[in-house]
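Per your request, structure below.
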């Protein structure tokens, strides 16, 4: 596995894998992008119903 292409350290990646709640979202998204992980976010029905 090449971590240098994702610009993160092995300890950071381990923390993310273990569910670190305070991981920086930008770094997490960069790791997902680099490793081809697709994220799908869905809004709760209440939000979509109000048009907000």
């Amino acid at each position: 596995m090449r971590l240098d292409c994702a610009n993160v350290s092995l300890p950071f990646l381990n923390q993310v894998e273990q569910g670190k709640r305070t991981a920086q979202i930008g770094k997490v998204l960069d790791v997902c992008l680099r490793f081809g992980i697709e994220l799908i976010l869905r809004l709760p029905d209440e939000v979509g119903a109000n048009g907000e």
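The chain has a mean pLDDT of 83.

Regards,
D.
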